[in-house]
Write a structure and sequence with these properties.
The protein is α+β, with helices and mostly antiparallel strands. 57% of the residues lie in helices and 20% in strands. The protein has a 3-stranded antiparallel sheet. It has a 3-stranded antiparallel sheet with strand order 6-7-8.
């Protein structure tokens, strides 16, 4: 009886194990390789799969998502014989699980070695300056070579990125000095350009100021000349309106002569030739006030206020002539 129970227990265990081996659940974005007696049979996709227990076996489970693999820095010699260390990052994806399992022993190691050799070939044809400024060109060349080589492995290289390009320490110091010199040069150029622009603006301002000042002075001179012309015109019209005779003009002429001689800078005074005519006119006017004069003397027939003023002026002029000493 006990032996029968043991046999039943063993059968139950075997059935359970068989069921476990028969049902295979594959996660999403994954694949599994099935071998039957060591030979590839099929590839299990995501979901519930049934296999023959104890005959079929799962060889490898492969992640089909895009993978990111960073590689350690690799020393590479440039065309101008300088050693630079380059860090690379590979973005790849398994497209064929069977080829990735059977076409290459370790596709990660194969991709790394292929990246190093390809990178050395590309950088070997570039100098240091071009290497530092041609990241996109290097990435595109690497991606093209890797994608072509890894296609038969069931691998697709999506992107290749250069994390860092580190030149030697001495080259870095030289580059820093050159960059510092370039920055100082640009700063000096900008400062000189600023001074030049400032001088130009100052000169333009002075030019505009001089033009405006000259225009103001010209307008002021024109207005002054116009005012003087108007004053002369007014005086001239007033004289003609008052019907002034030659005697009054001669008297005004003699009054202006002392003003002409005024000033410390006048060392020489030239008497104009017209002074004789003026003196003759003035003496004729003064002679009319004498006892033998006529015409302009006192007229007894003038009565009233005007007559009184004329008589008083005549008496005053006669008294002034008597007080003058005789002329030899």
């Amino acid at each position: 009886m006990s032996s029968i129970i043991i046999v039943l227990i063993i059968l139950v265990v075997l059935v359970f194990i068989a069921l476990v081996k028969t049902i295979q659940v594959i996660p999403q974005a994954s694949a599994a390789i099935v071998e039957r007696f060591g030979r590839y049979t099929r590839t299990l996709n995501a979901g519930l799969n049934i296999v023959v227990p104890f005959i079929d076996s799962i060889r490898n489970r492969i992640d089909l998502r895009e993978q990111v693999v960073p590689f350690p820095p690799q020393p590479v010699i440039t065309q101008d014989n300088l050693v630079v260390n380059i860090d690379t990052v590979i973005y790849y994806q398994v497209t064929d699980a069977r080829a990735a399992t059977y076409e290459v022993a370790s596709y990660i190691q194969a991709i790394e070695q292929l990246t190093v050799t390809t990178l050395r070939n590309i950088i070997g044809g570039m100098d240091l300056e071009r290497t530092l400024t041609s990241r996109e060109e290097i990435n595109a060349a690497l991606r093209g070579v890797l994608d072509e080589a890894t296609g038969k492995w069931g691998i697709r290289v999506n992107r290749v990125e250069l994390k860092a390009i580190e030149p030697p320490t001495s080259i870095q110091d030289s580059m820093e000095k050159q960059m510092r010199a370039d920055r100082d040069k640009r700063a000096a150029i900008l400062q000189a350009e600023g001074v030049r622009q400032s001088e130009i603006l100052r000169a333009e301002g002075e030019k505009q100021s001089s033009i405006l000042r000259a225009e103001g002075e010209a307008k002021a001179a024109a207005l002054k000349a116009e005012g003087e012309a108007q004053a002369i015109r007014t005086v001239f019209e007033s004289i003609h309106a008052g019907d002034a005779d030659q005697k009054l003009l001669a008297y005004q002429y003699l009054q202006m002569l002392p003003k002409i001689a005024e000033g410390d800078a006048n060392k020489l005074w030239i008497v104009p030739s017209e002074i004789g005519d003026a003196l003759k006119g003035l003496s004729g006017a003064m002679g009319n006030f004498g006892p033998m004069g006529g015409g302009s003397g006192f007229n007894p027939q003038n009565s009233g206020k005007d007559g009184g003023q004329g008589a008083g002026a005549a008496d005053k002029a006669a008294a002034e002539r008597r007080e003058q000493p005789p002329i030899d």
